[in-house]
Each structure stands twice: as structure tokens, then as C-alpha cells.
Amino acid sequence: MHSVPKGAESHFNVFVVSESFVGQRAVARHQAVYRALASEMAGGIHALALKTLTPEEWAEQGGGMLSSPQCLGGSKSEG
User: Fold this and answer.
1) Is 31 strand, coil or helix?
2) Would you give the distance in Å from CA 62 to the centre of its chain?
3) For position 55, which CATH number holds?
4) Where are the beta strands (DSSP E) in 1-79?
5) Do the strands 47-53 and 11-17 form a parallel or antiparallel pair, or are they unpaired?
6) CA 21, CA 27: separation in Å to the nearest integer?
7) Looking at the 3D structure of the chain, how many domains does it have?
8) At a CB cut-off of 8 Å and minimum separation 6, what does 68 contact?
9) Which of 13, 37, 59, 70 has its CA 20 to 30 A from that of 47?
10) What are the distances in angstroms from CA 47 to CA 59, 72, 75?
11) How many CA atoms lie within 13 A of 32 on its CB side?
12) What predicted TM-score, i.e. pTM, was given to this entire model?
């Protein structure tokens, strides 16, 4: 829904489940993911939504894929 080249992939919804998140707040979890994705983030990623969970939190939510919201921002014209 943004003015980007047709077929461009610039919006991502990432789900990370890791034991390393145990005892960490959401900000620390997100910082760890951003560090791991540093080279990708320097490129053409426009939006990145993160869901970072421990295995226990994942199980409490029933596992499986979580829903991803539609992007509602930016120009709707085709680039």
C-alpha cells in the first residue's frame, strides 16, 4: 500500500521464539533481533514488526502462526 516498486518486499513480520529471551524485557529481545539483522536492516527494509517469545510464552499462546496486520500507511499509488 506504499509507493514502492511492484513486487517489492520491504515489510516484514518476524516471529522469534528463543530460550535466550527468558528473563529479558521486550526491548532487550528486540535489540538482540535487530543486532542479528543489522546487515538486512541497512538495506531496503521499510517496516519490521517483531514478536519475540520464550518457548513457554509461545506454548501459552497455543503455538502456530500469529496473525499479521495489514499495512495502512503511506501512499496507495503504484510506484
Assistant:
1) helix
2) 19
3) 3.30.300.90
4) 11-17, 47-53
5) parallel
6) 11
7) 1
8) 13, 49
9) 59
10) 27, 12, 15
11) 16
12) 0.69
